[in-house]
Design brief:
mainly alpha, two-stranded antiparallel sheet, 15 helices, elongated
């Protein structure tokens, strides 16, 4: 239970399955009381949630394997008892093996690669990360199809260099750092940290309001890019290439093309910045998973293999063509994992900005 709650629950239910099946088949009560029918099913059910992502399909596999393990144990006990030999964990090994060998022959369960096997919780997190990553990727492809200027998208992509990608993490923490610095001088007319609120958007707006007042230009109700960059530099974010990324986000948020952000636009900037770190890490993990041979490059076949793993259809011909066009190559070329990560990040930023303005700016 310390390492994995899912593993602990699997062991408990596996043992319970063993006891119930043993009772149902009329096994000796003394053997049941001694735990003879709980150990092997417990191992088998736990193994199902280790070798497969803990989904409903894995639960069905675990139930089947647990029941069959009891039957296998009873058979092995009958065969080995005349020779005075204990069956030990042989039922677990014999029954578990066929359920593991069927990997890749069914879409009911999702196998976990041995090289990345850790604990069920991590397997589940990576699985949903992969699913979300493909949602982000398909959104980027759909957005490019609707866009009349794919060149602009590629230009924005090139602005996100390796340093800029690292800067995303720093940017998502900068607003909090600026806010804490203001809070230190609260008694001198500074600003207090926003109070605890159940509404996340309200907390973001409160924090944005405090920072906006501190950096707005001459109390005119607007923040220009130079003022924002100056404050970021005061917070220790002085990477030149990374600040290009700030300019990119700033331009996306400046929907009225005024060259400055009003409070609602700045609040959107805060919301996007706070979400950026998690989004970028999630997309990076997705790209790393798709990179099957870990050479830091992916091709369309690797993307299709990952989709197949999830039980999804391959990319359509139009999607393959659109993605290749976005990456500036053709369908036979490999794409840099970093560039793919940045492409999806830019598209997700744009989507977040559009959603935020649609729901908050009237």
């Amino acid at each position: 239970a310390v390492c994995s709650r899912i593993g602990a629950l699997a062991a408990f239910f596996g043992s319970a399955i063993g006891v119930l099946v043993a009772l149902a088949t009329g096994s000796e009560p003394s053997a049941i009381e001694q735990g003879m029918f709980g150990f092997n099913p417990s191992l088998t059910v736990t193994a199902m949630f280790m070798f497969y992502v803990p989904t409903l399909g894995a639960g069905i596999f675990a139930l089947m394997a647990g029941v069959i393990t009891v039957a296998g144990q009873q058979a092995l006990a009958s065969i080995m008892s005349p020779y005075g030999l204990p069956f030990m964990t042989l039922p677990f090994c014999v029954i578990c093996l066929p359920f593991i060998i069927v990997q890749g022959t069914t879409t009911i369960v999702f196998p976990v690669p041995l090289s990345s096997m850790t604990v069920p919780e991590d397997h589940l997190e990576r699985f949903y990360c992969l699913k979300d990553g493909f949602i982000f990727l398909l959104e980027a492809i759909d957005s490019s199809k609707k866009s009349s200027n794919v060149t602009d998208t590629r230009t924005n992509l090139k602005k996100l260099t390796k340093k800029s990608s690292k800067f995303i993490d720093e940017l998502s923490q900068s607003l909090h750092s600026m806010e804490v610095n203001k809070n230190k001088d609260a008694k001198k007319g500074g600003f207090k940290l926003c109070g605890k609120s159940e509404d996340k958007n309200e907390r973001i707006n409160e924090a944005a309001s405090q920072i906006f007042v501190a950096i707005e230009d001459d109390s005119c109700g607007h923040v220009k890019l130079r003022s924002l960059i100056a404050c970021l530099r005061l917070s220790g974010l002085d990477d030149k290439e990374g600040l290009h990324f700030v300019g990119l986000v700033f331009g996306l948020l400046d929907l009225d093309m005024s060259g400055a952000l009003d409070f609602k636009e700045f609040a959107a900037f805060c919301a996007v910045s706070i979400a950026l770190q998690d989004i970028h890490h999630q997309i990076a993990r997705f790209a790393d998973f798709v990179d099957d041979n870990h050479n830091l490059f992916v091709d369309l076949d690797e993307i299709d293999l990952a989709l197949e793993y999830l039980g999804e259809d391959h990319l359509s011909p139009s999607d393959r063509e659109a993605l290749a066009s976005l990456m500036g190559g053709n369908e036979d070329e490999e794409f840099s994992v970093l560039e793919l990560t940045n492409l999806i990040t830019v598209a997700k930023i744009t989507s977040l900005v559009e959603d935020y303005h649609l729901s908050h700016i009237k």
